[in-house]
Amino acid sequence: MSGRELDEKVETKRQLEVNTNQDIAKLEAYFGASMEMTLKNLPTVCVHTPSPWPGPYWPTFQDSINVQWSKGEASPAEKYATAFGLDVTDFMNKVSADNGVDSKRSHKKCSSDKDCSSLTDGSACAIRAGKSSGYCIPTWFGICHAWTPASIMETEPKCPVTHNGVTFHPMDLKALISDIYDGASVPTVFTGTRFNGGADSEDEYGRHSSESYRDLNPAFLHIAATNIICKHNATFVADVTAGTEVWNQPVRGFKVYEQTAMSLEEAAQTFYGLEVYPWNAAAMSIVYVKVRMSWIYETYKDGGLVSSGQVDQFTTGAYYYYLLEMDDNGAIIGGEWVYDSDEDHPDFLWFPKAKPAANTVTKIGLSYADVSMLLEKSVACSDSASTTGSTSAGSAESSGSTLASTSSSASTGASTSGSSVSSASASTGSVGPATSSTASGIGSAATETPATQIPATETPVATTTSSGIATVVPAVTTATPSGSQVGGNQGQHDSDDGHHHHHQQHEQQQQQHEQQQQQREQQHEQQQQQHEQQQQQHEQQQQQREQQHEQQQQQHEQQQHQREQQHEQQ
């Protein structure tokens, strides 16, 4: 699509939020089809199959893919160098300088976690194997911006593969393919505007003044998710928080739980305590919507987790609440976040347009052709019996230590179509193995509950549900949403850094939000009952007034009749 054609497309649609029209045009250009925007024609349950696969974010402080994730075995990097005739020391040094401990030479030097205790960014003292000192590195830095597209584009490895006497487990192959996507030039489609902080405030309705905070506009999210997943059987990566932090997660499903039709006046009164709906003069009606978007989170558990069904254990998500603004033909022309979703909603979404070029060799010497060969054998289980869903004896669970931490943004957002996936966004973290890449004792991070122990709150189900619109008005609220922003705001770091999504905290806040929503619904039911009682009282009073009026009318007629009789007699 040419620039002129893109501009013409944009001009025919309402500007929903920052760049939203252009974002819709990007999707249409990529898929070669118009986005369905009529609500009644959009599916209510969308599940991408096969699911993106869970995997680690290969933390920087653990020296990236130099980490010995399985006790007693070589790291993925050492295995690759050995199997393909590279100098092991040189290759591992390149890995460290690219995404591992040595990539943070500018950080504070340390020999123990105590040296990093004055920092407020959750840093641990990261020391490479065989060294006595290292650097203070936040434990959430990593390459989730590479794991996420790889988990979408590449088939999950299932079985061990032996090449030149070296055995690669599925987790080793996840490390290698993730590092390929970090180093390769992969074109992407990027939508939304990253919120980088700066001037922002909330009005009395909880609505943010910053357009880049308010986006993704819920209208675009609804249109994009249902069209991408249901209509085109594709999926995307979402930064699942609206603030300055970047939490990339591969999306698995999108499900509509409620659609309630409302007049403009009802919506204005219910959500803002106003007589007139204030946000979109072109809107003819409103639909209140409750949805849940599900995504995959990180783990070091080995094996084919998707094919074995264990992916459900690593599926989580969030509920979102919003208003869709409709034209008189039932097409979505805008939207507004409500309740806690004013604060907590996706910031941007993106996806890779293609796999890396077949002849890709990254700057550290990692060959896509070599890794693809290993991956194909692992998927086919051609070298050994399947170990689908297994966990290596020396994996994170048996290594004697687990790591998890909260997260902070560390990168710039991806550029528009044609940009490298490696610049797409920050990385996330997860439970990980204890390795010689870090100083003994990881400070407060070691006391966190591993994110991988949290059960999935909901597994998307590929069923068909009615897309009809309900008629019950949602609970009245004009107050600022009570939920707080998920995660701390600890500033920004380098463009290749990332952060760990603290799933337990997020789930707790989601549970609190659900409880608050239930309370609002109960209050609404009570208000409805009170309204009905008042209506009944009003009807009874009206009947009494009518009866009194009839009696007075009869008395008046009788008196009039008596006067007429008296007049005749006279």
UniProtKB/TrEMBL annotation:
One of its GO terms (molecular function) is aminoacyltransferase activity. InterPro entries: TGase_elicitor. Transmembrane segments: none annotated. Residues 386-467, 479-570 are annotated as: Disordered. Residues 558-570 have a biased composition (Basic and acidic residues). Residues 386-449, 507-557 have a biased composition (Low complexity). Residues 450-467 have a biased composition (Polar residues). This is Unnamed protein product. The lineage of its organism: Eukaryota, Sar, Stramenopiles, Oomycota, Peronosporomycetes.
